[in-house]
From TrEMBL:
This is Alkaline phosphatase. It holds the Pfam family PglZ. InterPro entries: Alkaline_phosphatase_core_sf. SUPFAM superfamilies: Alkaline phosphatase-like. It comes from Nitrosomonas communis. It comes from the Bacteria.
Length: 691
């Protein structure tokens, strides 16, 4: 077999059985590429989690088709062992054929407790390594070492110096390779067991991207200071020749680096470890420029240092009287143009790219350059054309992915529920900022960091539901379900509190343990929450901040105006105080959004009377595909969105790019469509730095 998927796909031949029941305890069928291939073969996948929900979906979407004698290829997935298939309803057991797949069969010589914790996107590399170098039967640690070496390219026992360690960590964290916590602990264990790096904060900087970049940020000024001292030695030297370069060869910095003697950090550093890092080693400095360019590190002042424009350290130095933002924007535009994802990209490639796109967009919208704004729109038009094509093929494969790293917004509460179940005393708070786009989060993040220097924000991104409407996507967040399961309230948000409490009751909590409040954004956050939360009893709280959405619906100054008003609102301190309140009372705090927004231009408004059930600027929703097709024929810029995961009588006609269902030439900021700015939204975990 060339892929681990082959063993599974061989069992799925179209038109063999109307119903296939699959015991899938490891969630293999929900893996992105496999789910896509199964849908390509005509199979619909539906998970059996809740008997009542499943019965509703099965009866409303599949049973009637089967009863008419039409063929359906339906695969019912149970995340149970094959011995537990018998727990299914009798009528399904009689009608369906039974299959079973698990990781133990695919990787028989590796430790099952280890490989079951791997993200399924890593299985390709692991299967290829097993094929090329078949391992003997392995225990837990041997399996971890095998995965580290063959999947992540880390031979921990061979890392002998700080350059090699930094190179590995930069490749991991800059490349967004999320190493599972168990492997991070093993990596640390092996490094320490070999007697090296004992003074390094390995337990913090190996598993945590934010901690690693904070560690680098602290050492960067010290590195610049060491170069300044060497420059001064050269200036004072009687042998200095006229016209000699300011920057010294790498070998000349080696005497400074011998100061790495295991001392605890000085200069008020928060992270342990050596004071000086080898930023100027050729394997390390290739990353430095992009780290500052993408905002992972922040330039610092270096008074008295003369730096050539082409110097490799220039991007990390803030020059007085020099407009660094202009240069940074131009270079970021060059970077994103080269890194546009392809049609074969995974969803994680898109979320990683969206974070870079958001950094760039925030800079442009907060700036005043018409040239940059026009160039951003030009690149954005190309980007959103690619994104729309990718969504049409891949979006449906995201719905049933495991919630460990939430791919979609309805996975977020399921991720929080796992945290609560693993630690029974754990309390969680979810803040949903209605309408917050990823680039607007970047602007907010910078202000929050100034308001609370000890606030640590671990940033991710996730996919909203399409159409990107509040009543669709926000209800999906609070219910933890696809919109298919709340058809009666899909045009309203009035059922959110009920859905939120039902979700947590299904995970073993009492309704009295769960709080919900919406309409937030102004006033004193402490007094608002004091009336909602009992800090000693309330275990879960869901909060809706709708200030951004209100700003958007009144916006007449485009994206730049959005960022300006969001800054003004955030400077009032409501959001910082809200997060701080929850952290102070021991809540695990997350923030997400139901959808983003984009500046659009009118392409024509349909005159359709009452045939559209939703008449938005970026989306129209129809009760039948025939009515939708009539309107789509008149407005070819719109997309007839396939209603996967949506109610049976819900057929959206969505816009992409910057098009809108408003009068030609009219400009507005809206949502509901399939632009990357609307679909990929922030997902942030807040923590407090403890030292």
């Amino acid at each position: 077999m060339s892929s681990w998927r082959d063993a599974i796909l061989n069992e799925f031949v179209p038109n063999v059985s109307k119903l296939t029941l699959v015991a899938d305890p490891d969630g293999l069928l929900t893996e992105e590429k496999l789910a896509l291939e199964l849908r390509g073969r005509g199979f619909d996948l539906i998970e059996f989690n809740d008997p009542i929900e499943f019965r509703y979906a099965y009866e409303s979407q599949y049973r009637s088709i089967s009863d008419r004698g039409e063929h359906t290829d339906l695969a019912v997935i149970l995340h149970l062992q094959d011995t537990e298939l018998e727990s299914l309803p009798y009528d399904l057991l009689q009608a369906g054929r039974k299959l079973s797949f698990n990781l133990g069969d695919l990787f028989p010589n590796l430790s099952y407790p280890v490989i079951e914790k791997l993200d399924r996107s890593l299985l390709d590399a692991l299967f290829e390594a097993q094929r090329k170098s078949p391992p003997d039967r392995m225990g837990d640690n041997a399996t971890k070492d095998f995965i580290l070496r063959h999947v992540f390219g880390i031979a921990a026992e061979l890392i002998a110096n700080e350059v090699e360690l930094l190179r590995v960590l930069l490749r991991l964290h800059y490349g967004k390779l999320q190493i599972p916590l168990m492997l991070a602990h093993r990596f640390v264990q092996v490094l320490i067991s070999h007697g090296g790096f004992k003074v390094w904060p390995l337990e913090e900087i190996i598993p945590n991207e934010k901690a690693f970049f904070a560690f680098l940020q602290e050492r960067w000024p010290l590195f610049l200071n060491s170069l300044r001292k060497i420059d001064q030695l050269i200036e004072d030297s009687p042998n200095k020749s006229v016209g000699q370069q300011i920057w010294v060869p790498q070998s000349s910095t080696q005497p400074v680096r011998t100061m790495h003697d295991g001392r605890q950090p000085q200069y008020g550093l928060k992270y342990l470890g050596p004071n000086l890092l080898p930023f100027d080693h050729h394997d390390i400095k290739v990353y430095v420029d992009n780290l500052f360019l993408e905002g992972k590190l922040i330039p610092v002042e270096a008074t008295g240092m003369e730096v050539d424009a082409g110097s490799w350290v220039r991007s990390g130095i803030a020059m007085v009287g020099v407009d660094d933002e202009e240069l940074r924007i131009s270079r970021l535009l060059d970077l994103v143009e080269k890194e546009l994802p392809t049609a074969e990209a995974r969803y994680s490639d898109w979320t990683a790219f969206a974070l870079k796109w958001a950094e760039l967009s925030s800079l442009v919208h907060c700036g005043n350059s018409t040239v940059h704004q026009n160039r951003l729109k030009g690149v954005g038009d190309i980007l959103n054309t690619i994104f729309a094509d990718w969504l049409a093929e891949h979006y449906s494969s995201l719905i049933n992915l495991p919630p460990t790293n939430p791919a979609m917004v309805h996975h977020v509460p399921r991720r929080l529920a796992r945290d609560v179940e693993e630690l029974r005393d754990n309390r969680v708070g979810l803040i949903v900022v209605d309408g917050l786009a990823l680039d607007q989060w970047v602007t907010i993040r910078q202000l929050l960091q100034k308001q609370d220097a000890n606030l640590v924000m671990r940033e991710f991104a996730t996919f909203a539901w399409i159409p990107t409407l509040t009543s669709v996507s926000r209800q999906s967040i609070f219910s933890g379900k696809p919109p298919l399961y709340f058809p009666s309230s899909i045009n309203s948000t009035n059922s959110e509190e009920k859905l939120w409490k039902q979700f947590w009751e299904g995970h073993g909590l009492s309704r009295l343990d769960v709080a919900y409040q919406r309409g937030l954004g102004d006033g004193n956050s402490s007094s608002v929450l004091d009336s909602v939360i009992h800090p000693g009893k309330t275990k879960v709280v869901g909060l809706v901040v709708d200030k951004i959405d209100k700003i958007m619906h009144g916006m007449q100054l485009g994206s730049a105006g959005m960022h300006n008003q969001i800054k003004q609102w955030c400077q009032g301190g409501f959001l910082a105080a809200l997060v701080g309140y929850l952290l102070d009372y021991g809540y695990e705090v997350w923030l997400t959004s139901d959808h983003g927004n984009i500046e659009c231009n009118g392409k024509g408004r349909p005159s359709e009377g009452v045939i559209a059930e939703t008449r938005g600027e970026r989306v129209r929703v129809y009760p039948t595909p025939e009515l939708r097709s009539q309107v789509a024929g008149i407005f070819p810029f719109a997309h007839e969105w396939q209603p996967v995961g949506l109610p049976a009588d819900y057929f959206p006609l969505v816009t992409g790019g910057r098009d809108a269902f408003v009068h030609p030439g009219e400009a507005m900021v809206g949502h509901g469509g399939i632009a990357i700015e609307e679909v990929i939204v922030p997902l942030v975990k807040f923590e407090r730095r403890t030292r």
